[in-house]
Design a protein that fits this description.
Largest sheet of chain C: 7 strands, mixed
Order of helices and strands of chain B: EEEEEH
Largest sheet of chain B: 5 strands, antiparallel
Helix content of chain B: 10-25%
Number of helices of chain B: 1
Number of strands of chain C: 13
Order of helices and strands of chain C: HHEEEHEHEEEHHEHEHEHEEE
Oligomer: heterotrimer
Strand order of the largest sheet of chain B: 3-2-1-4-5
Number of helices of chain C: 9
CATH class of chain B: Mainly Beta
Strand content of chain B: over 45%
Radius of gyration of chain B: 15 Å
CATH architecture of chain B: Roll
Structural class of chain B: mainly beta
Strand content of chain C: 15-25%
Shape of chain B: elongated
Chains: A alpha/beta, B mainly beta, C alpha+beta
Radius of gyration of chain C: 21 Å
Structural class of chain C: alpha+beta
Largest interface: A-C, 43 and 24 residues
Distance between the termini of chain B: 33 Å
Strand order of the largest sheet of chain C: 8-10-7-11-9-12-13
Helix content of chain C: 25-40%
């Protein structure tokens, strides 16, 4: 194989901006120290790929209200607990008697619900296409077992529209590191229309340091040669068409809808929610659009779209740190600001 | 990291990750004991090939042609 | 206090358990205070323990309470001598559980060579919770022996006494119902420290690796000394099982808690002997040299990653919650 490491380190062409749109990629890049291995002319930007980071305050507020409702329990992934709604987080409300539990998998809901039939369990269903597939499997399990005491509150997002939104902004992104696990479900073909429309390359990458370097190499090469196409550099897990069973299951239970992205506004058709025939399992997800980010000076929206860097936010490192996060970019360990703070990424 | 399927019981598979055993949903992909699998939030997303064959060689060749 | 064990709710019951297992001439006197021989310079420390579950693979809250305080004393170069222990018991605690914990403390104290010379118990309303505070006193050697995180200097070598994350992984696995054979590494490290000092290893700084993990400790060393500490990811021992658990839950072993591991920064020339010393001590079989101290990049901790890159490490923020998605 060609010496891609040398190529990336020595690159001296025009400055390039590459965006990753997957929280797990943000974490892997920091973990492997990728930035130290590439030329400073290749700039890596963390895009809106962290589901916790793009959840609007009204969604959190609704979860808080549910957690304080008698005989209701809110169940969530770990990172969600610390994100602030308009006033407080789920962690804060716990000390006021809010019923909140953390799980590793949404499928754990089933045993929770069966163990306590007198309570209604509401899952904070956030995520992109990958996790939506897991929620579809959960819905399938609930429906087939006839379980009545589970609900989900959805804030599900999809990739294509938000990537389009980024492309249509003035950010000037030259190429995208396409999300690995989303692509396992959707197939790498998901990005072909975008690559063609905006004439910008996509490289689907795995999560090991080496896999990311290989994908960056492919992107720089494609960018340098004006190639606007999709390359799958994670062929062991990703196919062009994706996981059809998962796609069918998602379609059975969910349908596209408009979605609000924290600090970015409403992007039409960029989300998913339960189909009308399954709305009895929904905990009030429709039109949760209000976004009152805690601090007016919070620049999360600009950071997430690559318009500004974490350190350019006036709150970064002073009013906003991982211990006292203002915006969601700092709460999640996959958020750009957290990653930058904790690992001093040279953005 | 990939896990190894130990057993399958209907829609639940027992998956081993370097000695850690947990249950995972097996409804999205057909799996059998011995399969190497990709798991996300307690759900199997994909079966992975046993060997990391030199699938990338062709892709690299394509890039060299650019 | 007892739940279906038939035992009477009383101080009598509790003190009979303590008296039986912590038996020593000082405690037996049952005075208001223990009067004990001292030394010119003393190390004093205290810590409280609130872990759940109370019992886990490799240990229990009692063993933790003894080792935690013993290790804090040992890390200052002191020989641990005396411990006090205070219990706060919520109603509903099983007498049998209390007895197991007290027995465990007594056994661990014996291994650690400390006497438990004073104690207290309070029973409060609640649902069976159990909390322990231990305070410890140790004797420092004569002379002006001192270790300090600020003493790290150019060329010094960084040693780690064994695998990372075992205790944290054990408690998390128990809470999340993940099956594995990971065990807490809860252990007293006084023997390891005294072996190093006996060998006249020039130890600049040493610390046990507890909450916040290795990265937090080494970051403190870097800031206190104004030096740059550099460590190699592929030299840091982590068991395959712990690594596997980290992969599932999205955790980083560098930030996970241990209860029986230490890190020592020693003079370069003494490093090979120091490694030998630790490896031959109980609990040190997996010890490794993991890095060195250099100048430049003041007050920073750098990790050379497996991929060959460099990652700057800070202290732990937040609680290290498992990642999602």
């Amino acid at each position: 194989m060609k010496d891609y490491r040398n190529f990336l380190k020595e690159y001296d062409g025009p400055p390039i901006r590459i965006m990753e749109v997957c929280g797990t990629h943000t974490a892997s890049i920091a973990h492997s120290g990728i930035v130290s291995l590439i030329s400073s002319k290749i700039q890596l930007i963390s895009g809106p790929g962290c589901p916790v980071c793009v959840t609007v305050t009204e969604y959190i507020d609704r979860l808080i209200t549910l957690s304080l409702t008698p005989d209701m329990v809110v169940v969530t992934f770990g990172d969600m607990i610390r994100v602030s709604g308009s006033r407080q987080s789920l962690q804060d409300v716990r000390s006021e008697g809010g019923q909140v539990r953390m799980v590793y998998s949404p499928l754990d809901m089933i045993s929770l619900a069966l163990a306590e039939p007198g309570k209604t369990f509401v899952f904070a269903a956030i995520g992109f296409e990958t996790t939506t597939a897991v929620y579809a499997a959960l819905m399938d399990g609930i429906v087939h077992a006839g379980i009545a005491n589970i609900r989900i509150l959805t804030s599900l997002k999809t990739m294509p529209r938000v990537i389009e939104w980024v492309c249509s902004m003035q950010g000037g992104i030259d190429g995208f590191l396409a999300p690995g696990h989303v692509s396992v479900i959707t197939g790498s073909d998901l990005f072909v229309p975008l690559a063609e429309k905006y004439h910008v390359p996509f490289a689907v990458a795995g999560f090991e340091g080496e896999q990311i370097l290989i994908a960056l190499y492919a992107l720089v090469k494609m960018i340098s040669h004006g190639e606007g196409k999709v390359m799958n550099l994670y062929p062991s897990a990703v196919t062009a068409g994706g996981n059809k069973t998962a796609q069918r299951m998602i379609e059975t239970y969910f349908e596209p809808c408009d979605a609000a992205w924290r600090g970015m506004g409403i992007i039409p058709d960029s989300g998913m929610m339960l189909r009308s025939e399954y709305l009895k399992y929904d905990a009030g997800s429709r039109d949760l659009f209000s976004d009152h980010s805690h601090h007016p000076a919070c620049l999360c929206a600009k950071v997430i779209t690559g318009a500004q860097k974490p350190q350019e936010c006036p709150l970064f490192g002073t009013l906003c740190t991982p211990d006292k996060p203002q915006g969601a970019c700092m709460v999640s360990t996959e958020g750009s600001c957290y990653s930058y703070f904790a690992n001093r990424r040279n953005a | 990291m990939p896990g190894k399927v130990i057993s399958v019981h209907g829609r639940i598979a027992v998956v081993d990750f370097a000695g850690n055993r947990m249950n995972a949903e097996a409804g999205l992909v057909a799996v059998k004991p011995g399969d190497s699998v990709l798991v996300h939030a307690g759900c199997i997303l994909q079966v992975l090939p046993e060997e990391e064959a030199n699938i990338l060689a062709d892709l690299f060749a394509e890039l060299e042609d650019l | 206090m007892a739940h279906g064990s038939g035992g009477k709710a009383t101080t009598e019951l509790i003190s009979s358990i303590f008296a039986r297992y912590f038996d020593n001439p000082i405690l037996a006197k049952m005075e208001d205070a223990a009067v004990v021989p001292g030394a010119a310079r003393l190390a004093v420390t205290t810590d409280s323990f609130v872990v759940t579950p109370l019992f886990f693979a490799g240990g229990d809250i009692g063993k933790l309470a003894v080792c935690g305080t013993v290790n804090d004393l040992a890390m200052s170069g002191a020989t641990p001598m005396y411990l006090t222990c205070g219990f706060i018991l919520e109603e509903g605690v099983e007498v049998a559980d209390l007895e197991r914990i007290v027995f465990s403390m007594a056994e661990t104290a014996k291994v650690a060579g400390v006497l438990i010379v004073a104690g207290d118990t309070k029973v409060i309303e609640g649902k069976g919770g159990l909390y322990i505070n231990t305070a410890g006193v140790g004797f420092l050697p004569e002379g002006d022996f001192e270790v300090s995180s600020s003493f790290c200097g150019d060329g010094d070598v960084i040693l780690l006494s064994g695998t990372l994350g075992d205790h944290h992984a054990t408690v998390l696995s128990a809470r999340m119902g993940i099956e594995n054979t990971i065990k807490s590494d809860c252990a007293p490290l006084h023997g390891m420290v005294s072996a190093l000092l006996k060998e006249n290893i020039r130890v600049r700084a040493m610390r046990d690796v507890t909450r916040g993990g290795l990265a937090t400790v080494l970051h403190e060393f870097a800031v206190a000394s104004g030096k740059c500490l550099q460590i190699q990811e592929d030299q840091i021992p982590v068991t395959a099982q712990v690594q596997g658990l980290c992969g599932i839950l999205g955790l980083d072993p560098l930030y996970m808690a241990n209860e029986g591991k230490m890190v020592a920064v020693v003079a370069k020339e003494d490093a090979p002997r120091a490694l030998e010393c630790i490896r031959n001590s109980p609990y040190g079989q997996d010890a490794a040299i993991i890095g060195e101290v250099v100048s430049g990049d003041e007050g920073t901790l750098l990790l050379h990653t497996r991929t060959g890159g460099i990652r700057m490490l800070t202290e732990l923020y937040g609680e290290g919650l498992p990642r999602i998605c």
